[in-house]
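Sequence in, structure out. First:
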Amino acid sequence: MKHYLIHDTLEAFLKNGDDLYFFGMTTNGNINKTVNQEFIRAGIGNKIAAVVQTENTMEFTITTGLHYHEIYEIQSGEKFSKSSEIQIQDVTIGSDGTVVATNKTVAGDVIEFKADSYPKVHSVQLRTIVYDPDTNEVVGDLYFIFDKGLPNGALNEAFEAGNKTAEISFTALADEDGNYGKCVFVPKQD
């Protein structure tokens, strides 16, 4: 089997019904498969006689390099809607240092973070490109496809000096055949 070079991140395409999302400006993509193992020790010397393997889990995470407000929809299970009745405080600071807050009505896109709303299952396709290590030419695409990826719903927004990134973590749910997903290498067609 040939060996390849991969030095790019994963882009992500998500689908839930008619809702389509694409995150091409990512900085990181991780795929993790974990299995709990319990060693059964027996005999003289307490040797490992067997291993019980349970809790086979598959998770994946993407980190965006740019802000995508669609992440709020994916993590909350809600949708943005247009509104012309948004109340904000217009804050000004006078030359003497006094703070003045004035009610202002503005128009914009709004999403409600509801206490009883949770993320929905998405089909997720992660893709990167694969290089030949001898020529450094692109020789194909590597896909990770999960038919049932459930976002964890956690939203952690840190606004600071510098670039703001966002992370979405998913748990893969098994399909009717017991499969979490698949990895596919597609050679480049000349």
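Second:
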Amino acid sequence: DRDGTIAGLSLDITPLVVALVFLLEDVMNHDAFAVLLYTIIVVLSFLHVAPFKMRKMVGHWYYVITAYILIMTVMYAFILWAK
């Protein structure tokens, strides 16, 4: 919209949330993890089409998301290295 908002949850948030859920893969039982993952994906799908307004992720959010991605990269590298 013209006021800098979008309807529903932004699509670029989905991979950030799903990557966070995958950190629990080795901690949880396989069946419980599958249920959690599919539940999160379904909830995110509903939020993408939900009738609420959300501000676009601009400005300082660029740095927050960049830091999040770098931290997640280090965490996944450690997980792979530890296996």
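Remark: The chain has one domain: 5-82.
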